[in-house]
């Protein structure tokens, strides 16, 4: 479809709706009729390939629809293809994809972010109206920021994970990306809600509420603003804050003292959960399988050949952190930190309505710049990971451009269940500003 490598599969079997889907479509409100939606390739669509960006699933065809896909189909959306991602959503640049990186439509020498980089690039280049992503530590918000689009990481449990290839089940959530917050909202409204196939979902019905900016209490989390952040990003985010202050919002400095521990805690819990979730890829149940003499050889060879370096690194880290003698020192400690962060968010939202911070510490970086330095890559999540540990909703929206013409995103975070608040604030900002209306040069992506 383009040079961007944003899509892994476009030449797909046409979707034939099940009789129940057709009935529901006929009965339904068709809220997504005419909308072209791209799907991150870690979300199952019946009869379409599902690779999760990994060689180990190359050639695998999903036998069923994820719950979000069933809901999108029943609302009349047109699904147009599966987008590129970091392998099993581990990464911040799409460079760990077994199928090569996606490129940033604003500058083809730079990454689109990750792990939902293909989705963000597809939206930015105008190849679809909306794209689904998944966010475990920032994988929707960071690529949205890098590609100049709006991306929502919903409240944990408000959207079903059934049919999402699991990374860390306690943080994973499916969300949408589009240029306009309004389109993100339409898709979120259609796909959220309790699901009998995912016991972590709760009864949630999205309602826009008409949030008022006059009197809104905005907290600026000290621990995030004090990080080393590109000055142009800081300035553009301050302008977002000023926009609300000019319209009657009140700002205050707030503190979430455990936030500096969020990233280290995440990089213990995530590998622990991921190593358990990835155990199912054994060369028997899924596609890729190496011919060997014994069963044990089959397991080891399939996994050695099928998984890339980042995935192997995390399986090693995770099994180590969970092993006898290390469990208390690493995993249990990290879970304690997570609980503390969750609690500090609950407390801060008794004082303020929303938190605002930049989405990323840096502008979109060059392809190849960070891929050989995992710690540098992990730091891409510094500003976004807290919302995942706390399970709260967060939106990244375009707030400007660098002098070099690269997009800048800022993040609005609210308490659990207040997805409507972050969406409303993004819509209010976008109704009066133009950042989300700027497009990359078509020559960059044709
Ligand atoms: N950078 C994070 C990681 O590699 C992103 C994960 C995610 O949100 N899917 O784990």
Automatic annotation (TrEMBL):
<comment type="function">
    <text>Allows the formation of correctly charged Gln-tRNA(Gln) through the transamidation of misacylated Glu-tRNA(Gln) in organisms which lack glutaminyl-tRNA synthetase. The reaction takes place in the presence of glutamine and ATP through an activated gamma-phospho-Glu-tRNA(Gln).</text>
</comment>
<dbReference type="Pfam" id="PF01425">
    <property type="entry name" value="Amidase"/>
</dbReference>
<dbReference type="InterPro" id="IPR020556">
    <property type="entry name" value="Amidase_CS"/>
</dbReference>
<dbReference type="InterPro" id="IPR004412">
    <property type="entry name" value="GatA"/>
</dbReference>
<feature type="active site" description="Acyl-ester intermediate">
    <location>
        <position position="139"/>
    </location>
</feature>
<dbReference type="InterPro" id="IPR023631">
    <property type="entry name" value="Amidase_dom"/>
</dbReference>
<dbReference type="InterPro" id="IPR000120">
    <property type="entry name" value="Amidase"/>
</dbReference>
<comment type="similarity">
    <text>Belongs to the amidase family. GatA subfamily.</text>
</comment>
<dbReference type="GO" id="GO:0050567">
    <property type="term" value="F:glutaminyl-tRNA synthase (glutamine-hydrolyzing) activity"/>
</dbReference>
<feature type="active site" description="Charge relay system">
    <location>
        <position position="40"/>
    </location>
</feature>
<dbReference type="GO" id="GO:0005524">
    <property type="term" value="F:ATP binding"/>
</dbReference>
<feature type="domain" description="Amidase">
    <location>
        <begin position="30"/>
        <end position="423"/>
    </location>
</feature>
<protein>
    <recommendedName>
        <fullName>Glutamyl-tRNA(Gln) amidotransferase subunit A</fullName>
        <ecNumber>6.3.5.7</ecNumber>
    </recommendedName>
</protein>
<keyword id="KW-0547">Nucleotide-binding</keyword>
<dbReference type="GO" id="GO:0006412">
    <property type="term" value="P:translation"/>
</dbReference>
<keyword id="KW-0648">Protein biosynthesis</keyword>
<dbReference type="GO" id="GO:0030956">
    <property type="term" value="C:glutamyl-tRNA(Gln) amidotransferase complex"/>
</dbReference>
<feature type="active site" description="Charge relay system">
    <location>
        <position position="115"/>
    </location>
</feature>
<dbReference type="InterPro" id="IPR036928">
    <property type="entry name" value="AS_sf"/>
</dbReference>
<keyword id="KW-0436">Ligase</keyword>
<comment type="subunit">
    <text>Heterotrimer of A, B and C subunits.</text>
</comment>
<keyword id="KW-0067">ATP-binding</keyword>
